[in-house]
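Retro notes, structure queue

What went well: the backlog is down to a handful. What didn't: a couple of records were mislabeled last round, so from now on we paste the full input next to the output in the thread. Example, using Protein SirB1 N-terminal domain-containing protein from Pseudomonas libanensis:
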Amino acid sequence: MNPRTAFFACLDRSPPALFEAALWIAAEHDASVQPLLILQDLTALQQQVSLGMPMLPADELGQPLLRRMNDLGFAQDDHTPLRPAAALLDKVLQRKRGQPLAMGLIALEMARRLDIPMVGVNFPGHFLLRVPGTDHLLDPCGGRRLYPNDCRELLHRQYGPKLKLQADHLHTAEPRAILQRLSRNLRQLHLSNDEPLAALVDAERVLELGSANAADYLARASLYQRLDCPSAERFDLEHALMLSDDPIQRLRLTERLGHLPPNSVVH
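Corresponding output:
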């Protein structure tokens, strides 16, 4: 079974195997990565985390779990520019440094193994966690509690004061949506580190996961442009045009399509 097939097989399980699926993404980029062995080795981390946890009801252990992971050295990667290693889970486990989403995926797996209720939240610009039923979110990088005003401040720091906090920013994210976000992160990280072929692997996965938007097709079109594949670029630009509601973007896409050679048709 190839990594992409194994990835989707994880999503088809009930419940979906979120963490294992993320490991298969890493295996797509590095043939030496063995997800099943990493899952076995994670038992040692689980024991380390468990030994330092307080005796509290399970629904009060979300923040202690994240603080315990921080005590063990797990933290947000502050390297500039950020590298793909900040989002590839095998590398994050080795380095104990990663993007908030990668930190969150490890925390969710630890929570699952320790029977601690916890879910992911695809908050704009910074992945967050929640213990169901609580009135706050948790930063996966250290465990800080975020109440609504904290979330507004975080949103403003990321995007400026014009973007208002909305209810859907705080919704629980399904596994497929979390993995699509991880794939988008990797697409951008590989591209910014001058690895267009690796970025293309991630761009294709984003689209295969479904519910892709105009920006996703446009991102893959730009990769095909860089790789000199005009027919594939045209295909994605046409899909971006169909999905776009922005009249200015639609005009630019139409102009860009006009500069591409027409697709050849064989009768």
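Agreed that this is the format going forward. Reviewer comment attached to the example: The first strand starts at residue 75 and ends at 76.
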